[in-house]
Amino acid sequence: MTNSVNTREIVLDLLMEVTKEKRPSHIVLSQMLSKYQYLEKQERTFISRLFKGTLEMMLRLDYCIEQFSTVKISKMKPVIRNILRLSAYQLLFMDNVPPSAACNEAVKLAGRRGFKNLKGFVNGVLRNLSRGAGEISYPDEKKESVRYLSVWYSAPEWLVRLWVDNYGLPSARQMLADSVKERPVTIRCIDEADAGALKETLISEGVTVEAGSFLHYAFKISGFNYLDDLESFRSGRFAVQDESSMLVAELAGLKAGDTVIDVCAAPGGKSLHAAAKLKLLERENPDGPRGHVYSRDLTQDKVALIEDNIMRFGFDNITAQVKDAAVFYPEDCGRADVVFADLPCSGLGVIGRKADIKYNMSPEQMEKLSGLQREILPVAGQYVAPGGILMYSTCTVNPAENIENARWFEENHPFRLVESRQYLPGVDDCDGFFIAKFQKEQP
Q: What's the DSSP call for residue 191?
């Protein structure tokens, strides 16, 4: 590795941003990879794995560290706490890192960060952990199943209990195991007809390509260094999007000439998917009607993300707008053939990609989010034309935010629930995701 940067120090900085500043992990990692894209692939891979792995397994690492420390994790200085975590991850999960290197670099890091008086403490804890790793005592899986799963898969006990209660112990274990495994990047081919050619191009670019689980134009890719290194990405032939998210536009049953309103759209994946489907329908019937997508979000910053993607993919049948999903705009009443409502939620279905969510979410916050959905759904429903479609979706696996709200909406508003699907991570080979398709009653 080059001497120009200290990879472990970069990881420490990333962990501090997520644990202390509460910045989203996927954003800080993306910004880091962009800033240090000149690094060798080996270095970038090391940084990504150490950061994501430490964050994913943080509760288990804390549990292990406390078995060899005289000081509780909660009483440690935040910097020391994160130095111990990233070093413990190397000792417990990275066989290619010599224990001496993990310990020595941690001691140096503590000194560089102004904690020379704690170098001995850091060294002692890690040396003891290294020697005693095989003797760590975990909760009894049979007697304390929730506690055991919480520690082993690094998830808060309330979350483990929620999943066990709703989906049973075997499925909960599968979901938790999935949340801490490495995963490929899922992509959507922008032009469905280009899927075969795109696959060949990706392979020629040295990318490992696997078929998607549900859709022929979805692929799982790995083995590349950086997306912007790929000409196929730079030229706008594919977008990063999970298949569960793609199914929203797929199940909507879009028709030529449809008007689509996406009320919580940023960064615009579902809107752009709808725009691409409308383009495909126009190609099949050049003399048919022209559809359009109105892609909205709450702030200009979020809408700027949508606009960037519209420009990147070159669509002319989509308009980005700053509009609040919770506010009713009379001019849009009954205007849309299809409305997408991918609503604010706890995000528990994507903790495999955004591990910080599981540490920052709480049952109280989930209850508030469920209530917010009940404010937005009736507003979004008013934009649907009679006989039109409302696609309600979330990236969570909490029934109170999903099927319970879908049933409430059907009982209290002029819509029929056509179908609903709950995808579970690790069970359905995609992100955890909920989709409900409603049809508005005719007058």
A: S
